[in-house]
Q: What sequence folds into this?
């Protein structure tokens, strides 16, 4: 048993459209697309060309700067189109999938040791399941992490119930943890929700209680094993642990996730068994009748804008659809209202703490200079001064950024700060700029 | 409201880039966003946003000031009729004050907002909503007898030199409303101290009572504290003083609104009161034998007289000019409270220390924050 940590700061955003615990298999579309843009800070170099046949798990492209790291195809079939954007940037590799997938087989070593595991992951093109802090990028191969972290619960708005997901795939999950424990030389730290009945096959269990973002791996790392300059920590999503475990059980890449489709615009919010790269068009058409909506891959705080004809991204474990807020509201800033969601108590909605909201994408006001203080601090359960850190980033003061803890954060950890900000400052964008600056200059 | 919206949409192109009235875009935008929360949506980062914005924040502060404003209006009438020894009912008193105070408020808003609009148009930046609060704070900190042209001058001074030359709301380092008051205090001392606190416009058939004294409680305080009004009178606000500052109760109602809505910092308010009280106790402990020395003033009374409560609740808490860090806020508040009492007790020429004390520590707030951040960094390094 590891630590037991109570977090008080944070905020649970209660939204309409929570997924019911039912799993529906959606008809698999023929066309799959793999998007190199899903992976932060890599330069993709293609291995395949149009017309090539690929297997599920075989390489489609690699990182030009680190050619050992390859990226897999989720299905078998024929590469039918390579979609490029400005400056011939590769946006999508489209594959016409076989009716039943044929898998590339990777030999799995009988004795699991850190080096064997690394070799198998590289050979199986699954290195990209691992991510590292700082910077939340794919780690380099040579590095030995201080620890590997897995969070087994997600506190983001309408997030998947990971204990439900893990339950469905317990064998693969256990195998995944066992592999990670070896890979980290025993330093596997698993964050669980206080009171969870999850039994772990390996790793140190750290219990967390408190509102969002207590389920964020960044927050958990901060409280269990804070990152100093020069150190790295690896982490995986719980669903990626399952994929990893499956891979070490069968030698095959089964790119499947249980993804909840959530949000107030979804007709029957529930879980779907989805494959990475799968077309979402049909799902969105069936589930969403309104046209003035925002499709999001991920949650409403840190997800990416999607669209109706999009494909499931590599790290996506949740889909959300909410109304667009592109309409002006007469005297909206002045009138008392109980319908608006606000952490402040300037709207009467604070008198109904358990109410669920239908929130649109309106910014509710214009961007201003930093005026209010103490807002960010209320929702960030970390020993970090968020405003001072952001100002250091804006000023490009590398030393100060390091001293104030930039290595410990990623966008998602400060997403709530951006949500509550009265001045409507784009906090996550600033954080990413800071991280990019540190990576190139630091 | 569709008519208004359609009208705004129809004239909007004139104010956009390339339009005839492009230069006036900030002014148009100010009106437009005042009427309608704009239709802008999130682009990157979070997809949903808290419904609170700067306008909502500012209007909440204005709402919190309303009890002070209403009580102030009543008290202006009350003090007026008291000076003439006349009987008057609640409404008479209120209406007398209402017609005296309203022009001050109107001039403050009209002139200040005018300057702000012109500046925004010239500089091409959006009109900020900060003046919604400043415009009301200025008259509330003034004696009711102040001439209107002086209010206008104060509003100009505060908007231009207190805020806009630093880049507008969010970049100023001193409380603009207090700066206006300080400017008027030093530029026109005759209108800002002495027998200016009660409106003595003539009443037919009545003369000012012999017993009337135009001095506020802060004056006998320096010579003989036994001449002061009772603590309960001062708490409720039956005393002479600046329009909005006399009633501690009204200030506390405002404080409750600010704290409950999360707009004002309870940390700052409590530490200002705490600092004043502790310094008051210290003064009591060190007081000389002579019983009428100002050092004998009961510590609690320090918090009730003059603009102490008003300053603690509405001025010291200004989020832009106060310290920004949690620990910094406590230090900042304690220093303001303590320094105010110190000024009052030891500087007979300047009994109302609140204003200068806040302005002084406005200047020091960045330094306080800097020290807090440095100690945070040191602790982080040790922790690491």
A:
């Amino acid at each position: 048993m590891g630590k037991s940590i109570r977090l008080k700061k944070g905020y649970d955003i209660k939204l309409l459209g929570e997924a019911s615990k039912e799993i529906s298999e959606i008809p698999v579309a023929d066309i799959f697309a793999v998007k190199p843009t899903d992976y932060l800070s890599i330069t993709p170099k293609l291995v395949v060309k149009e017309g090539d046949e690929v297997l599920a798990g075989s390489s489609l492209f690699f990182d030009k700067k680190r050619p050992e790291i390859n990226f897999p195809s989720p299905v078998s079939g024929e590469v039918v189109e390579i979609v490029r954007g400005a400056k011939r940037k590769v946006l999508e590799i489209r594959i016409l999938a076989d009716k039943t997938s044929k898998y590339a087989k990777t030999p799995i070593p009988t004795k699991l040791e850190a080096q064997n595991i690394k070799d198998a992951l590289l050979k199986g093109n699954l290195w990209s399941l691992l991510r590292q802090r700082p910077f939340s990028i794919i780690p380099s191969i040579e590095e030995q992490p201080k620890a590997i972290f897995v969070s087994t619960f997600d506190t983001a708005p309408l997030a998947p119930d990971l204990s439900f997901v893990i339950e469905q795939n317990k064998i693969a999950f256990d195998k995944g943890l066992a592999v990670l424990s070896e890979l980290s030389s025993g330093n596997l730290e698993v964050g669980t929700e206080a009171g969870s009945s999850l039994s772990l096959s390996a790793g140190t269990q750290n219990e967390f209680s408190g509102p969002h973002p207590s389920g964020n791996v960044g927050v958990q790392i901060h409280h269990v094993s804070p990152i100093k300059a020069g150190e790295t920590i690896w982490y995986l999503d719980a669903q990626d642990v399952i994929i990893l475990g499956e891979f070490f059980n069968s030698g095959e890449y089964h790119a499947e996730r249980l993804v909840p489709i959530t949000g107030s615009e979804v007709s029957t919010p529930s879980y779907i068994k989805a494959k990475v790269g799968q077309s979402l068009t049909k799902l969105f058409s069936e589930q969403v009748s309104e046209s003035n909506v925002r499709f999001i891959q991920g949650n409403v705080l840190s997800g990416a804008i999607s669209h109706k004809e999009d494909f499931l991204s590599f790290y996506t474990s949740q889909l959300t659809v909410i109304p667009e807020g592109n309409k002006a509201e007469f005297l909206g800033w002045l009138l008392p209202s109980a319908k608006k969601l606000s952490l402040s108590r300037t709207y009467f909605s604070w008198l109904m703490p358990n109410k669920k909201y239908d929130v649109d994408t309106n910014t509710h006001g214009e961007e201003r200079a930093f005026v209010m203080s103490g807002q960010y601090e209320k929702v960030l359960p970390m020993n970090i001064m968020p405003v001072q850190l952001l100002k250091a980033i804006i000023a490009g003061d590398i030393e100060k950024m390091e001293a104030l803890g930039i290595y410990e954060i990623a966008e998602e950890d400060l997403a709530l700060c951006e949500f509550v900000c009265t001045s409507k400052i784009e906090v996550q964008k600033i954080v990413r700029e800071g991280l990019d600056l540190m990576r190139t200059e630091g | 409201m569709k008519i208004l919206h359609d009208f705004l949409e129809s004239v909007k192109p004139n104010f956009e880039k390339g339009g005839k009235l492009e230069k006036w875009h900030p002014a148009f935008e100010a009106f437009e966003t005042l009427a309608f929360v704009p239709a802008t949506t999130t682009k990157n980062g979070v997809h949903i946003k808290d419904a609170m914005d700067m306008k909502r924040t500012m209007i909440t502060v204005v709402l919190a000031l309303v009890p002070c404003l209403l009580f102030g209006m009543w008290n202006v009438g009350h003090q007026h009729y008291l000076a003439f020894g006349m009987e008057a009912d609640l409404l008479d008193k209120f209406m007398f004050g209402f017609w005296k105070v309203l022009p001050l408020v109107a001039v403050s808003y009209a002139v200040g907002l005018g300057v702000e609009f012109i500046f925004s148009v010239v500089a091409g930046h959006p009109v900020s909503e900060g003046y919604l609060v400043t415009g009301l704070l200025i008259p509330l900190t003034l004696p009711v007898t102040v001439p209107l042209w002086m209010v206008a001058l104060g509003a100009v001074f505060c908007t231009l030199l207190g805020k806009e030359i630093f880049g507008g709301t969010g970049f100023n380092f001193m409380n603009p409303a207090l700066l206006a008051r300080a400017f008027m205090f030093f530029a026109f001392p005759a209108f800002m101290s002495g027998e200016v606190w009660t409106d003595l416009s003539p009443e037919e058939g009545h003369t000012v009572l012999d017993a009337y004294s135009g001095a506020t409680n802060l004056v006998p305080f320096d010579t003989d504290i036994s001449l002061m009004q009772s603590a309960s009178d001062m708490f409720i606000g039956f005393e002479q003083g600046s329009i909005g500052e006399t009633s501690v109760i009204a200030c506390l109602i405002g404080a409750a609104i600010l704290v409950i809505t999360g707009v004002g910092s309870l940390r700052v308010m409590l530490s200002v009161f705490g600092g004043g009280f502790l310094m008051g106790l210290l003064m009591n402990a060190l007081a000389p034998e002579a019983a009428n020395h100002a050092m004998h003033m009961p510590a609690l009374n320090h918090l009730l007289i003059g603009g102490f409560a008003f300053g603690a609740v509405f001025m010291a808490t200004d989020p832009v000019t106060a310290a920004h860090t949690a620990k910094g806020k406590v230090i900042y508040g304690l220093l303001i409270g303590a320094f105010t009492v110190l000024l009052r007790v030891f500087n007979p020429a300047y009994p109302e220390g609140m204003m200068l004390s806040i302005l002084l520590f406005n200047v020091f707030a960045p330094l306080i924050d800097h020290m807090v951040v440095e100690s945070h960094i040191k602790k982080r390094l040790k922790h690491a």
Observations:
- The first helix of chain B runs from residue 2 to 15.
- Chain B touches chain A through 56 residues (CB under 8 Å).
- The two ends of chain B are 58 Å apart (CA to CA).
- DSSP finds 16 helices and one strand in chain B.
